[in-house]
Design a protein that fits this description.
Rossmann fold; Tyrosyl-Transfer RNA Synthetase; 2 domains; seven-stranded mixed sheet; globular; binds iron/sulfur cluster
Length: 363
């Protein structure tokens, strides 16, 4: 059967089997107007997401927590999280966005003022430009270093976590600095603090992450159980999304600029980068006409699937035409590059408009 949503990069089914993550598509039918990333299988797994589906359906309070570590530039893969936040905002969620300046200080040596500046110029600006409504009263963006509620909760929760656990989950060793050792507890508190009485009490909470973050989710869920009698926490839910492939084939990474299209790239550069991306095309045109291309192994197709094409019907058509060898990579790339250029032109304007607003958020 043709599966236009498939990707060959990581064996996500194995992740589901080995770690007890549940397949997301089982819930799809219960969600009214699921997000494009849900529909297309980019969000492939979950833990306890049924609670969130129920909260949305019954219009009950629920929260979404997703942090940002202010250490570098945002690339187009990071857009996936913002797209999901915009969807949750439309569905009435309380949104908490911790800026992990304590982590960037302890793990990367970035000073607090520097982290704040990166958060404003890069992250918050992009979040607003990509559609997050900064004036929503249910949106909470904060610096970890300035959030006393989170810090106090982290300290309390740390009472029931020991060194062996931290070592096995995060690979900490005897030479890890103590500040770094403590930052996972701050992140656990980031996730659980929306359920404190002063913030409205226990509520379903979802954390959208990549599968590499699952150990942290498991720890947070365990800790929420350990403190159930004290805080009445509802164990947090999570969703897992596929990684976006880098331009050269592996994982897209901000620390490897050749792999990434950055959200601050000028439109022409974004277009040029896409034109240089690895495709699933064959060695020769003749071979491609005979055997068809391999969209499952094509960065250009992935960009269309994740970001550039809103119409499922159009995307399916490209997939099928590629598989049948009816379309060649040059033509297909040119079309995707034009969509990319237009997207970045629009984003450039929106980023410029968002800059002042972004400055106000943390003041
Ligand atoms: Fe990718 Fe398009 Fe080439 Fe198919 S035709 S492999 S989708 S660039």
């Amino acid at each position: 059967m043709i599966d236009p949503w498939s990707s060959a990069i990581v064996n996500y089914e194995k992740l589901i089997e080995e770690f007890g993550i549940k397949p997301f598509h089982d819930l799809l039918g219960d969600i009214e107007n699921p997000h494009i990333l849900m529909r297309r299988g980019v969000i492939f797994g979950h833990r306890d997401y049924g609670r969130i589906v129920k909260a949305i359906r019954e219009k009950n309070n629920f929260a979404v927590v997703t942090g940002m570590m202010p250490s570098g530039k945002m690339h187009i893969g990071h857009k996936m999280i913002v797209d999901q936040l915009v969807w949750y905002q439309d569905h009435g969620a309380e949104i908490y966005i911790p800026i992990a300046d304590m982590e960037s200080y302890s793990a990367r040596g970035i000073s607090f003022p520097e982290a704040k500046q990166i958060a404003i110029d890069e992250y918050i600006t992009n979040y607003i430009a990509l559609g997050l409504d900064p004036d929503d009263k249910n949106l909470h963006i904060y610096l970890q270093s300035e959030n006393k509620i989170v810090q106090d909760l982290a300290y309390k929760l740390a009472k029931k976590v020991n060194m062996n656990e931290m070592k096995s989950i995060y690979g900490f060793s005897g030479s890890t600095n103590i500040a770094h050792l403590y930052t996972p507890m701050i992140q656990v508190a980031d996730i659980l603090h929306p359920q404190l009485e002063e913030l409205g009490g226990p509520k379903p909470t979802v954390v959208p992450v990549g599968p590499d973050q699952d150990p942290h989710i498991r720890l947070t869920r365990d800790i929420s159980e350990r403190f159930k009698s004290q805080f009445n926490f509802i164990s947090p839910s999570s969703t897992y999304h596929r990684f976006i492939t880098g331009l050269t084939g592996g994982k897209m990474s901000s620390s490897k600029p050749k792999t990434a299209i950055f959200l601050s790239d000028p439109p022409e550069l974004a277009e040029k980068k896409l034109k240089s991306a690895k495709t699933g095309g064959r060695e020769s045109l003749t071979e491609q006409k005979e055997k068809g291309g391999v969209p499952e192994d094509c960065v250009v197709y992935e960009m269309l699937l994740y970001h550039l094409l809103q119409s499922d019907a159009e995307l399916k058509e490209i997939y099928q035409q590629c598989k049948k060898g009816n379309v060649m990579c040059g033509e297909c790339k040119a079309r995707a590059a034009e969509l990319m250029r237009n997207f970045f032109k629009d984003l450039e304007t929106k980023r410029n408009n968002a800059k002042n607003k972004a400055k106000d958020i943390l003041n």
